[in-house]
Specification:
This protein is an alpha/beta fold and 406 residues long. It has 11 helices and 19 strands. The protein is globular, with a radius of gyration of 26 Å.
């Protein structure tokens, strides 16, 4: 029988469940399951909750239809089953963003990260928790650091071997890897090995623990902006290391924030923006196909595979793009490009423009007179051989305008 629920009564329950099934649930959560009209879950979830009279629904395909299915059941008592913690890299968070808090109850469960940390004896305050489940596995590359400890929700049986290859290629082949599967249940399994000779065949559904150990020749790729220029494929027209670090400092990368990189070139600024803050996003606008190809290759190699690349030039290519939190104009500065970018920028957004030509510098001076902000020159000199001796070789001086939209 359908339960008729008052509009103020929670009708939707998102229940985290582990390999131990009903045994691991609290009495209150078990009571909710017993009273449910509809239970939605994957096949493995339904297999853990067998004795129930409720109507059973499978995860819709594609998963994006889930919200339509769930909200279409409003008025009935609905339980959505998810694995582990419903609000940690889980469908529960996505559902929660679309349903009023007063209508939904979350039932937490010990999740894969907590279980894996316990199995490894690692403090969760001292490690990184990542997911590549249903996402590009390359995004974990940005977290490969000496002595870092990583817990990774994987996409499938092939993911640990892919990550082992990333580690080995970057000089972290001695890193210790552990795959944990079916944690908390009777079928729990564990596989241990080193990245450089990883050859285990593991279950599809697993969690990976990585203890990163760097060799003397390991690549050092900090998430603080200012990666070495030689880490990027480039035709030479790129924002160089020291200027790039100063540029990112003014752009202020923040969690989940979106950058427009206008005149993206090799993508160095956009890539470092995405590496510098969790879930930071970037759209690179670049007219040349060869440079967009280099930017895409750099993004994969440096752990930002979600860099979006758009063909075109400002202002025309900016039409229809999601409003940004920050904008970098590294090439093609003009009054029209600035006006379109500034109009699209969100309040408290940051805009930084760099220039090396007198013509672009003249535009900056005019903009500074109108909008204020900071106008600086950045000069870099590098020590290089001069015959048998050493001298300073200056790079082109960069003029930089930075503004905050208030």
């Amino acid at each position: 029988m359908t339960s008729e629920l008052a509009s103020t009564t929670p009708w939707l329950h998102v229940v985290g469940i582990g390999e131990d099934g009903l045994t691991g649930l609290t009495p209150v959560t078990r009571a909710v399951l017993d009273a449910a009209d509809v239970i939605i879950g994957a096949e493995r979830h339904h297999g853990l909750v067998l004795s129930n009279k409720a109507e059973r629904l499978s995860w819709p395909s594609p998963f994006s239809h889930m919200l339509d299915v769930v909200t279409g059941l409003r008025g009935r008592l609905v339980v959505v089953l998810v694995t582990g913690d419903p609000l940690w890299f889980s469908a529960g968070a996505r559902i929660g963003r679309s349903v009023e808090p007063s209508e939904i109850v979350f039932h937490p469960q010990v999740g894969a990260f907590q279980l894996a940390a316990a199995r490894m004896g690692w403090s969760m305050a001292d490690l990184e928790t990542l997911t590549v489940h249903g996402r590009p596995v390359e995004q974990m590359i940005a977290f490969i650091q000496p002595d870092a400890r990583l817990l990774v929700l994987t996409t499938g049986a092939e993911t640990p071997a892919q990550i082992a290859a990333f580690l080995t290629e970057r000089g972290f082949g001695k890193s210790k890897m552990t795959v944990l599967a079916a944690m908390g249940g009777d079928r729990e399994e564990r596989y241990d090995g080193l990245a450089e000779d990883w050859d285990h065949i593991v279950p599809d559904f697993n969690t990976l623990a990585v203890d990163c150990i760097a060799a003397p020749n390991a690549a050092l790729l900090p998430r603080v902006p200012g990666l070495a220029d030689n880490l990027f494929q480039s035709d030479g027209t790129m924002t160089k290391q020291e200027v790039r670090a100063a540029t990112l400092a003014k752009l202020m990368p923040m969690r989940g924030a979106l950058l427009w990189d206008i005149g993206a070139g090799s993508g160095s600024v956009a890539i470092e923006w995405m590496r510098a803050a969790h879930y930071a996003r970037a759209i690179g606008i670049e007219p040349r196909a060869d440079r967009r190809a280099m930017a895409a290759a750099n993004a994969l190699a440096l752990g930002t595979p979600r860099l979006q690349l758009v063909e075109g030039t400002a202002p025309d290519a900016l039409t229809g793009l999601e409003a940004p939190d920050a904008i970098f104009i590294g090439g093609g500065l003009s009054m029209d490009a600035f006006d379109a970018a500034w109009a699209a920028l969100k309040p408290l957004g940051r805009l930084v423009a760099n220039a090396v030509t007198l013509e672009s510098e003249a535009v900056m001076i005019a903009l500074h007179a109108k909008y204020g902000g900071e106008l600086v020159k950045v000069s870099v000199q590098r020590a290089q051989p001069v015959g048998r001796l050493t001298g300073w070789k200056p790079s082109m001086t960069v003029t930089q305008l930075s503004l905050v939209k208030r």
